[in-house]
Write a structure and sequence with these properties.
Number of strands: 0
Largest sheet: none
Shape: elongated
Helix content: over 70%
């Protein structure tokens, strides 16, 4: 700054400027940095260029310094020229600082005000939360108090007469008040004591009315019923009455229950006793009087009414048995459901209550059943009763009602042994039957075998629903005895032919009856099919054609045996025999076929079976005559003149077809 004062006159003097870090004349300039600046300047392109051209650095430095001084003076003049603007700018900045200061004070005031407002809002929020909590608490207390008051208040109209619909609603309300009062008493609520006396009096009044009402309903059951309609359904809509008694007065509830059990037990007993007696009046009475027949015939006639009924009037026992037990099934299921629902019992308790109501009736049924079974020889009726019980047992199981299970088992334990005993008596009766005591015999089916077929087919068809192995075993034994009986009967005929006809007729009849009702693959059907087939084949091969053409058949059999041995020449001297056979067959075969047809018509009761026998016999005729032709065509017999009299085989077949029966 001293340099500037020396260069200018007094009029041009200006205040000294504080250049700060730009003042390189200050003593604070750090000389250590000079080297750094020198190094940086040496790297300058102009400096490097000056060094390369050999310029004097001192002279160059002075030029630079002079240039800098000139620029500095120009810059100072510019600052002085703009001093007024700078002063004005300074004043403006000062004014702005003043304005900003006032704004700062204003904003500080706003901030202070906002802080106080936030505090007030927070206070109001806290007060609002507190008021909301107090409101909720008061509302909760009001709700509970309202409920408490509603539960405690007893209307002046309670209790109305039982016959009115309002009584049930009022009874529900009273029951709720009683339960609520009990709950309050456990909590030792003082308000409970104010209403306890009123609630107790209302409870006594309601119990008295309910007791009188239900007892009147139960007593009304004792009046004669129309069409035997059990009226307990009228009590179901008053189920809550008993529930109220059970909850509030168990003594009265027990009285109601005992009275119902006693009344309904008598009603059911009277109802079924009357119903059973009325059924007995329409039970069948057999006018044939088979009870006086010998055991061998009586037992086998027990099934006659199923197929050849000769009854004066009424229905068989098993029909009445079904009606009786269907009524028991229907009423028993309904009663069990009613007891479980109305008296609110389940499991063993429900079963015990059911037995209290129906036990006397079931005992009467078992007693009557025992009396009937002990003197019954009708195995079909007993077996039908067994299957009726099995069917009803399945129905109750499907309905999930176990009330009658023990009764079903008791009846079955009574019926099964009797049925097996009757079957065993049948078996023994057939085994002990003497054919010689049965009177005159003929080849038609015997009445005992017919009765067996009817009996066996009935048992087999019934047993298919609920198969029983013991029954199948007994039927197998009975079938064996019947087969033996038929053989013993056949042995009474002197001729083999009559024996075969008798066997075929009886086997065919039994098979036909069995196939009408039993399955084709049943043991009985298969057994008689095999017996019939065997006897029919024997009849075809041994009887009819051996009677009429025995000599020709014998010759064919002998010749075939010799042909197999190669010894046919042994018969070359039998020209006379062969001639008689050829001419005898030619003259009599038509008569033989006609006689065969008539004999079959007379001998066999089943024309279809007779047709089969005729067809088999005619087939054998063709076979034997074809064999006769074959034998006479051998070299041993080719020279016989009688060969020209043989009937043409094709012509014989055509003629035989004319005699084929068309049944």
């Amino acid at each position: 700054m001293a340099y500037l004062q020396e260069e200018k006159p007094d009029s041009d003097l200006v205040p000294a400027l504080n250049l700060g870090d730009l003042d390189i004349t200050t003593d604070e300039f750090i000389l250590d940095e000079v080297d750094i600046h020198i190094q940086a300047n040496l790297e300058d392109e102009l400096v490097q260029e000056a060094l390369k051209t050999g310029v004097d650095l001192r002279q160059y430095s002075k030029q630079v310094e002079a240039e800098l001084q000139r620029i500095e003076q120009a810059s100072i003049k510019d600052y002085i020229k703009e001093s007024q603007n700078i002063a004005s700018l300074h004043n403006q900045i000062t004014a702005c600082d003043s304005i900003l200061e006032r704004m700062e004070e204003m904003l500080s005031g706003f901030q202070s005000d906002l802080s106080s407002i936030s505090s007030e809002i927070q206070t109001l929020q806290q007060q609002s939360v507190s008021m909301n909590i107090r409101l909720k608490n008061r509302q909760a207390v009001r709700s509970q108090l309202s409920q408490l008051v509603d539960e405690l208040v007893v209307p002046s109209t309670m209790i109305s007469p039982v016959t009115e619909q309002e009584f049930l609603e009022q009874l529900h309300e009273l029951n709720n008040k009683i339960n609520f009062a009990k709950e309050l008493s456990f909590r030792e609520t003082l308000a409970c004591s104010d209403i306890q006396d009123i609630v107790d009096r209302l409870k006594i009044k309601a119990v008295s009315k309910i007791r009188e009402f239900i007892l009147q309903k139960i007593y009304s059951f004792r009046k004669p019923m129309t069409n035997y309609q059990i009226p307990q359904n009228t009590l179901l809509k008053y189920r809550f009455f008993y529930q109220f008694l059970l909850a509030n007065e168990r003594t009265v509830a027990k009285e109601i229950r005992d009275e119902y059990v006693d009344t309904m037990s008598k009603i059911y007993f009277s109802y079924f006793k009357s119903y059973s007696s009325r059924l007995l009046k329409v039970q069948v009475r057999n006018v044939l009087g088979i009870i006086y027949l010998p055991i061998s015939e009586y037992i086998m006639t027990t099934c006659i009414y199923l197929y050849f009924p000769v009854w004066s009037h009424g229905f068989p026992y098993e029909t009445l048995f079904r009606s009786q037990h269907y009524a028991l099934l229907d009423n028993g299921c309904r009663e069990f459901l009613f007891l479980s629902d109305f008296f609110m019992v389940a499991g063993n308790s429900a079963l015990d209550l059911f037995n209290s109501v129906m036990g006397k009736t079931l005992s009467m049924f078992l007693k009557n059943m025992s009396a009937y079974v002990s003197d019954c020889y009708d195995s079909i009726a007993v077996f039908l009763c067994i299957h009726i019980i099995l069917r009803f047992k399945a129905i109750t199981a499907k309905r999930n009602i176990p009330a009658l299970d023990k009764y079903w088992e008791a009846v079955l334990e009574m019926l099964w042994p009797r049925f097996e005993l009757i079957l065993e008596m049948n078996i023994q009766s057939i085994r002990n039957t003497d054919p010689q005591k049965l009177g005159v015999l003929d080849t038609r089916p015997h009445y005992i075998t017919r009765r067996y077929a009817e009996f066996s087919s009935a048992i087999v068809s019934i047993n298919q629903t609920f198969p029983n192995e013991r029954t199948n075993a007994l039927l197998g034994q009975l079938q064996i005895e019947v087969e033996n009986f038929v053989l013993k009967m056949a042995a009474e005929f002197p001729s083999r032919k009559d024996q075969l006809i008798f066997l075929i007729n009886n086997y065919d009849m039994m098979l036909g009856v069995l196939m009408e009702r039993a399955a084709d693959d049943s043991k009985e059907v298969e057994g008689f099919q095999q017996l019939l087939l065997a006897r029919t084949q024997v009849n075809r091969t041994q009887e009819f054609w051996e009677i009429n053409h025995n000599r020709m058949i014998t010759f064919v059999k002998e010749s075939e045996a010799l042909m197999e041995k190669g010894q046919l020449d042994k018969l070359k001297n039998g020209e006379v025999r062969i001639t008689q056979l050829v001419r005898g067959f030619s003259s009599s075969w038509k008569q033989s076929v006609e006689a065969l047809s008539q004999d079959v018509m007379r001998s066999f009761t089943n024309f279809k079976n007779g047709t089969s026998i005729i067809q088999g016999a005619l087939t054998q005729l063709i076979q034997y005559y074809h064999g006769f032709h074959k034998i006479l065509s051998q070299p041993t017999f080719r020279s016989l003149a009688v060969r020209s009299e043989l009937i043409n085989l094709h012509h014989l077949m055509v003629e035989v077809k004319k005699h084929k029966p068309n049944f």
